[in-house]
Amino acid sequence: MKRMTWLAAAIALSISSLLGAGQALAQAKHQWKFVSIIPAGQEVFVDRFKELAAEITKRTNGQVEVTFYAAGELPYKAPEYMRVTAKGLVEMSEIVGSMAFGDAPPLLLGDLPYLALNDAERKILRDIMWPKIYAALRKNGVEPIGWGAYPPRNIVMREAVKGLGDIKGKKIRTAGGLEAEYVKTWGAAPSFVVWAEVYPATQRGIVDGVLTAAVAIETAKLYEVAPYFLKIDGPVAHFYISVDQSSWKKLSPELQKTVKEVGDWWTDRWQKLVVEEADNGAIKRMQDKGQLKAVVQVPPETHVETRKNLIPVYRSYVKDKVGPEGSAALEQALTALKLQ
Phi first, then psi: what are they for 331, rounded to 5°? Predict the structure, then answer.
């Protein structure tokens, strides 16, 4: 009798353990921290990143729970996000090509200014460059799930201008790199000032103008010290939403598929809501409020001429920074774009 009682108890315990394990498995969550380069307060960008985190959580039915952190909320700096993510210190991050190319040089290939001048050319460029960029990200321990671009660069000036000819000899604040190179082709003098000092530097005349996105001009109130807007429809800066490979491999194939579908959906949404609507909306709002004294549109033929002048710069820059693989990709792009 005692033997039967012991056996029944053992069976009951085994069943209970199996049920508990099954429930634990069903309730298991992948908890991801997601960090961006954008600080709190810049809601036009932050809201979209929060939306991405919420959408992944929603569409995976909470199996992948993503929590968003703005810049400064975690103890990591933007240029090290790729390394931090690869180590699993955060599971997901916004990796900006111009900030991370020191570790992954092919990331530069997405940001060659004025190489593509319309949507059709941009698609040709992505088809050639993105496989190289994604391979570089994977080589550095992260899996890309989506991408975006910050809005086109434009210029605001302290004094009135009628076109690009009027910025010759003027000091224009840029973020450095290739931004400085194409400003030079217009005869201007590129100058670097940290973003926090841009407003007072412009106010005091340390720089004559600032190259940045319209949304940034509006939020930083640069129109107060530089109210003349030169619409150059400039280059964009790409970033790549990436997940550390260890966390990625823990997902089932079904969850991986769902997360990438969200990434594709969000990439299109970012383009529409940030690059198109928010940036153009910023220009319109500043005009409607009289914050801009003038808006001058640079004609398309100027972009064509700028691109022609930049081709030797592309070749030298890519050869130096990326190497033979980058040079081969650039030549392939130039051929596909019928520029040689």
Answer: -65, -40
Query: What percent of the chain has pLDDT above 70?
Result: 92
Domain ranges within the chain, ordered by starting residue: 29-104+140-149+238-282, 153-235+291-336
51-57: average pLDDT: 98
Same fold, 29-104+140-149+238-282 and 153-235+291-336: yes
List pLDDT tens digits, range 229-271. Answer: 999 998 889 999 999 999 999 999 999 999 999 999 999 999 9
Q: Which of 162, 307, 299 is nearest to 228 (CA)?
A: 162
* Structure tokens, 85: 């993510």
pTM reported for the whole predicted model: 0.86
Does domain 29-104+140-149+238-282 fall under CATH 3.40.30.10? My reply is no
Residue with tokens 């900030």: 99
Q: How far is CA 325 from the centre of its chain?
A: 23
Cα radius of gyration (the chain): 25
Rounded to whole angstroms, what are the CA distances from 81 to 34, 142, 285? 10, 10, 34
The whole-number pLDDT of residue 238 equals 95
CA distance linking residue 85 with residue 200, whole number of Å = 35
Q: Is the dihedral of CA 119, 120, 123, 128 positive or negative?
A: negative
Integer CA distances (angstroms), 125 to 148, 291, 324, 334, in order: 15, 36, 18, 9
What are the φ and ψ backbone dihedral angles of 40, each rounded to 5 degrees?
-60, 145
Mean pLDDT of 302-325: 94
Strands 30-39, 64-71: parallel, antiparallel or unpaired by DSSP? parallel
Q: Which of 31, 39, 32 is nearest to 73 (CA)?
A: 39
As a residue count, the chain comes to: 340
Task: Please give the C-alpha separations between residue 236 and each of 74, 76, 98, 111, 152, in angstroms, as whole numbers.
Answer: 26, 24, 11, 7, 5
The reported pLDDT for the residue numbered 194 is 84
CATH class of 153-235+291-336: alpha beta
Nearest-angstrom CA–CA distance, 200 and 207: 10
